[in-house]
Amino acid sequence: MTAVNAPTAGGTHAADRRRRIAASPAAWTVWGAVVLFMIFLVGIVGSVLVNSFGTRWFGTWLPQGVTAGWYSQAWTDFALLQVIITTLEVAAAVVVLSVLVGVPASYVLARRNFPGKKVVYLAFLLPIMMPPITYGIPLATVLYKFNLAGNLSGVILANLVPCVPFVILTMTPFIEQIDPAIERAARMSGARTLSIFTRILAPLLVPGILASSILVLVRTVGMFELTFLTAGPDSTTLVVALFNSMNAAGIRAQQSVDAMAVIYMSVMMVLLVVALRFVNPTQLVAQVKEEPEP
Amino acid sequence: MSTEAATQHPGLSVRHRLAERGVDSQLLLLLPAVVFVIGLFVYPFLYGLGLSFQPAKGGGAFADYQRFFSDSFQRDTIWKTLRLSVPAALFNVLASVPIAYRMRGKFRGKRLITTLLVIPITLGTVLTAEGLLNFLGPAGWFNRTLMSIGLVDHPVRLINNYWGVFFSLVITGFPFAFLLILSYISGIDPSLERAAATLGADWRARFQRITLPLLAPGLATTFCLTFVLAFSVFPSAILVGDPTGATRVISIAAYQAAYEQYDYPFASAIAMVMGAVELLVIAVVLLWRSRFYVGSTGGKG
After folding, report:
1. In this structure, is residue B125 part of a structural domain?
2. Domain holding B210: CATH number?
3. A242: Cβ–Cβ under 8 A, 6 or more apart, which residues?
4. I need a surface site. Which of A31, A254, B121, B232 has the fewest CB within 10 A?
5. Is residue B2 part of a domain?
């Protein structure tokens, strides 16, 4: 369960240069598969990118001309400024709230044993294990009942459901590896729980909080299902707006939709580059790992 | 509860006894998260479960479930979802194993490859769908290449059908499965294999007798997580699939009931069926997994 402090892994593999006996056709197949996948990836991203800059593209390898006009058209047609502002508002609110709710809980889970700990842990695990649509539809029904869905607050609340457990599950192992003796020393010197949190733990926790915040940010901007189920016309995020414009195909030019896709893509790429400065690539994936082994 | 007990015993001793069992005021830090999970996850889920037994059109508690299972248009969505998600998840896991096995050591460019693989996960299904429409479409680069090297005469139809959705599930699911399995494989202590090699085991035997048994629990977990992703396929099933036919998956059925017919009880019933089917598959996999060795993999797990 080394979710946040993983970068140390792999150090012992330095001596692992061996086993070239394994038949080379196998190696060719493996590398061929990787290359094929990369070609698909480049093709998918590249064709969106090329199409968004092309004037007219029909029956040729590349478009006839180059234009940036689709971007200005997409910007005005889809009211992208508003959409991007909404996306950032939702993402910022989700990050702040999930850290505020999640970190204290992960502190207790990391440091304490109490009756019912397993049940609590399971309750935090379930929202991540369930597909968003399964709990998203009952959740949206409840939110609509309390008039919370269809606006910004509904989108934020729905996105918190997988994000708070995510923060808890990534922060718990991080807190576990902070030496509890530091807190005991502070307590002996007369610090109360609040000042232990703000003066002792918070500075030590900053790297972990930063890592899990950026992961939550990436997940929230990319989260389609929950936002889609709870968003109203003025609270759609970028990915939902992209889906809506694709689904209403024919109304807008395909290139205009692609321009929007490129804008979404560049937002995600910026986030990814930032994320990779703080976390290991596997951490973007491995939000749920095995139970810690004894 | 503590105040009640406090009237019978001196208050201090109750607090003391609770503290001995690990209950004290510090647990209050857990409160916001617990309230949150109960309010936004447990309650809506139970509400949906209750709602699914109160059909909008009347006819007994199980009427909506009966409606789902008696209408082949609705019932078949289970089969269609499984037909997409199980092969896609299996493919992603099985294709990851040899590649991750080969890449477990250290080599130049490993970080670059893992970073490239994170891209499709970050982009998500909606953008992948848009790219697949362009790339695999009849006038896309893929078909043009196939035609220009003379492999096919007419464009192969790869979008707006089963294969379009399958490809989108592989594009987003494979990197996910690969990175997980890579971290599992890297956690297996390499000295175990070296010991086997000293005893004369060839690479096939080493893989079958050492790596695979140690990897099996990780494979099961990865399969479960990939399967959950594939099972809830929704945007790509609409965009690159055939949402009225071959890829009308169960999440589309639930969405249509809720947002097109405004029949929330029926939609909740479908969501519950969806959750039950998914948990069933996961339970089968975990049951299978429990037959394997569980314990330390000898390395940093």
Report:
1. yes
2. 1.10.3720.10
3. A257, A260, A261, A264, B126, B127, B130
4. A31
5. no
What ipTM, to 2 d.p.? 0.80
Residues of B in contact with A268 (CB under 8 A): 122-124, 127
Say if residue B133 is exposed, middle or buried (CB neighbours under 10 Å; 0-12, 13-18, 19+).
buried
- Minimum-distance CB partner of A132 among B43, B232, B238: B232
pLDDT of residue A2: 37
Residues spanned by the domain of B271: 77-289
Domains of chain A: residue spans and CATH: 23-56+63-67 (no CATH), 69-284 (1.10.3720.10)
Domain total of chain B = 1
Q: Between A25 and B132, whose confidence is greater?
A: B132
Nearest Cβ partner for B126 among A22, A124, A239? A239
Asked if residue B149 belongs to a domain, the reply is: yes
- Ramachandran angles phi, psi of A66, nearest 5°: -115, 135
Per-residue pLDDT tens over the stretch B38-71: 999 999 999 999 999 988 877 788 888 998 999 8
Reported as a single tens digit per residue, the pLDDT across B71-97 is 888 899 999 999 999 999 999 999 999
Cβ contact (<8 Å) for A284 and B122?
yes
| Res B179: pLDDT | 87
* Cβ atoms of residues B173 and B229 within 8 Å: yes
Strand partners, B128: none
